[in-house]
Amino acid sequence: MKESKDWDDIEVNKRSTDKVFFESTILQQISDSIDFIRDESKEILSELDYDGFEDLVVQEFGESTLDQLSDIADDLSQFKSEIFSSDDFPEFIKEYSLDAKRALNRDGDYIRRAQRRMIRLNSDELVDVYKTNIRVIELCDKAIEVNPSNAEAYYIKGRALMNLDKYPEAIEEFVSSLSIEDDDKVWIAIANSNTLNGDYDDAISIYQKILERDENSFDAIKGKALTYYAQGDFAKASEEFKKASSIGTLDDVSKEIWNECLEND
Predict the structure, then answer these.
(1) Domain residues for 206?
(2) How confident is the model over 175-219, as pLDDT tens digits?
(3) Where are the TPR repeats (predicted)?
(4) Residue 229 belongs to some domain of the structure
(5) DSSP string for residues in 144-210
(6) How many domains does the chain have?
(7) Could you read off the pLDDT of 33-44 as tens digits, one per residue?
(8) Which residue(s) pair with 3 in the sheet?
């Protein structure tokens, strides 16, 4: 074991089993953090079922394999983030890391990872819904920290909050997204949140404003139909479902609700 008095002495650490100690508290914290990340990385990678990879070639990597690798990378990122957010970690290192992420447009990477998880939520894959949505929110928060003007980050965070039945909080995120970029999909999300939260009049008002700009907005028309259904106005709901079906294809759930409206009209 070797003891170092300054940064240049790190060159004496030629053996992988050696541990370097610094007089500088900051340098020692950095060294310890690197060691921690390395050790945790080894532990996570050791959990991989390498037998399952033996018969695979790169061209045959399936969606589940990519998801597994993505999750491992995500776990490593979380460990690193926990270290960087620690009160004991030097502030100038945290700021340097944030500046580097801005320069590399890392907010886009966080958003892509969040989107991937949202896709998995909507697939037939068995996932922990609560845990996955929480992770999506965390990834969006990281993107926002790097780039507060990333409209998509607020939008995806809002969708994850909707999945957790946190509609007022979701609407706040959607409004933040709209303050950066006007997008009908975000207005639709706000209206949908209002419907799910029981604020039917607000929802109808928003759908109507969207339709004033685009009278053939399938999502707005279907949204109105579902809102009228939630209100118990089956006649209006059926009318809107009919309009929507003439523009696009209704999903199975909407078709069942439409049939119920026709039976009760």
Answers:
(1) 201-265
(2) 999 999 999 999 999 999 999 999 999 999 999 999 999 999 999
(3) 151-184
(4) yes
(5) HHH-TT-HHHHHHHHHHHHHTT-HHHHHHHHHHHHHH---HHHHHHHHHHHHHTT-HHHHHHHHHHH
(6) 1
(7) 666 555 555 554
(8) 21
